[in-house]
Amino acid sequence: MKKRKRISxxxxxxxxxxxxxxxxxxxxxxxxxxxEAAASDKLQIExxxxxxxxxxANANNLIYRSYRQxxxxxxxxxxxxxxxxxxxxxxxxxxxxxxxxIVGGIILAREMAKKKVSDEELLNIAASxxxxxxxxxxxxxxxxxxxxxxxxxVIAGKIKFPKNIKLVAVMPDLNISTKKAREILPKQINFKDxxxxxxxxxxxxxxxxxxxxxxxxxxxxxxxxxxxxxxxIPGFDSALKKGLEAGAIGIYLSGSGPTIMAFCxxxxxxxxxxxxxxxxxxxxxxxxxxxxxxTKPTLSxxx
Length: 303
Ligand code: HSE
Prior knowledge:
Blueprint: E1 6-16, E2 25-39, E3 44-49, H1 62-74, E4 81-87, H2 97-112, H3 119-130, H4 136-141, E5 144-150, E6 153-159, E7 166-172, H5 178-183, H6 191-210, H7 216-219, H8 226-229, H9 236-245, E8 250-253, E9 260-264, H10 268-281, E10 286-291
Parallel strand pairs: 3-4
Antiparallel strand pairs: 1-2, 2-4, 2-5, 5-6, 7-9, 7-10, 8-9
Helix pairs in contact: 1-2, 1-3, 2-3, 9-10
Bound molecules: L-homoserine.
């Protein structure tokens, strides 16, 4: 009997928005979705790790739905798979778990299908499943990325991130789905708020290139989403303030939240404790994770 090819892929989660870069900036981090798959007679999914009791082990699974989307795109009959999912990315915490799932499903599909689209097209398909590209882009390309959509295409670039910035994520024990966190955003924004973000995101990128971090706390600010979403996170403003006072060089709502991400030169644990203390006083328990940017492209993580 012919042995069936096994495919392994490791996809990073991400922190997106990074202050003023709403729906534009995203950075891959070292929390991974690990997939192993082989062609099978019927769909079989096993899930372990983060969200193992929540992630569907059937055709509703987001990895599988994305996989199926690729086959639709190339107009081929879907190849049934046996899929093992080992997940390290917390769900609904603003750390890119759905972006990683979509990227994983689509890469896997290209490996299994006869028709292989280009790497660019792969990213376009991923963005069409997610609806916005700022999580799927870093999960696909690695590193800090900026992206926009032009018609149905993702246009993306990588930005160098300084090695001496450390990341600490405080994850409040609150479930906020991206859907709910997008529904709360206004349909229109004030002109001044748009200018506020354009100024800050430009200065943020400049600070990364010049390694001048003294004003970073002013750049990792935002008027497009955080003020609306903080309603879901009691104590949010105070938590950010205490994190900065404890030594963070900048602090922001990761993705659609509720994770609060701090950039630090040092004192990461002190910063995390200051943020956690505020939330604990609001009876919200938190988990701290020390993270690193992950720079390798995911297409080099296939074996
Ligand atoms: N840019 C997205 C948002 C990231 O803030 O809604 C979450 O998917």
